Amino acid sequence: MKTPSISLRTRHLLLVAVLTAVSCYQPVSNSSGQSNDESETSYASTSSETAEPGNGTPDSGREKEENQVESSGGPVGGGFRANLESNLKRNGVDPASAIDQSNAVESRILSEYGAVFLTSAVPPPKVMFTSEAEVSGFQSKAGVEQANLGGTSIELQPKAMAALKKASEDAKAKGLSITPRDGAEAARRSYSKTLDLWNSRFLKALDHWRSKGRLSADQVSKLKGLPIKQQVSEVLELEKSGIYFNTFFNNSILYSVAAPGTSQHLSMLAFDATEFQNPEVRKILAANGWFRTVQNDEPHFTYLGLMESDLPAYGLKRVSKNGGEYWIPDI
Questions:
Q1: Residues 179, 225: one domain?
Q2: Do both 87 and 205 map to the same domain?
Q3: CB 152 within 8 Å of CB 183
Q4: In 3D, which of 66, 64, 60, 59 has the Cα closest to residue 38?
Q5: 328 - beta bridge partners?
Q6: Is residue 317 situated within a structural domain?
Q7: Strands 316-321, 324-329: pairing kind
Q8: How many Å apart are CA 48 and CA 51, to the nearest integer?
Q9: Cβ-count burial 97-110 (b if 16+ within 10 Å, e if not)
Q10: What is the pLDDT of residues 163-201, one digit of tens each?
Q11: Quick check: pTM over 0.85?
Q12: At what angle do helices 104-113 and 228-239 cross, to 10 degrees?
């Protein structure tokens, strides 16, 4: 028996039916990563600086399985300075405008506090801010997020805050807590606050060394009247002869308080934790990108947003002091 042939018109009708069915098909949405997408979107809307080259869609910043550490693009060869310059450029900052390599104060500050320039958040655009206007301008551009932690309202950059809240949740799951030390100032600070803290050590030390006969009345008067950057320079120079300006007059003032305009708190990438002595808390903070980067400042943690195992490749070295570890520039 002959198989009936299908007419051209019939074939056409069948094809239309198939295409219509395909166009009406709606795939089932995958909502398994919804919460992560929402947190990334929330952060991106907070600041125009949050979209990073090469990061693609919000999904590319999805949390890793065990922590919230994010990639900053990966380390480059050449050690700390090369990675610092790479990260500044990635954020649209000319390294030459950020760091005056010929300035002894800036070079010293960079060696003491410079790890913050490697952050996967928004790094400070310069080693030393010189006014309240510069600080507030940067903070506004970087984005400010507020949260209540342990009954205290604090402010940080959005990425840093997200990682700190995640660390707090991880700590709670283990019956621990992570809380601000000394209130709101544990996080964001103003330029004037760093100036007040500097003077609390500087002026007290001037009185101390004047009473000991190590400084004259004229020297004290001259030091008080110097512009802040020159004042810091003179203080560091005096410390070479044993005239120290820290709390106990036995070490550098930089191990007691940051020079005005240089504190990592100005960049909203620093957090002072009450529970800093607990090694398990330090481990949780590290798993979420928070590390101690300022030697002798035990409660102080810096948000780098990097994996601890990668820190040496970024040009940081681990230093052990008083039973704790610090990651500082390997310069």
A1: no
A2: no
A3: yes
A4: 59
A5: 317
A6: yes
A7: antiparallel
A8: 7
A9: ebbbeeeebbbbbb
A10: 999 999 999 999 999 999 999 999 999 999 999 999 999
A11: no
A12: 80
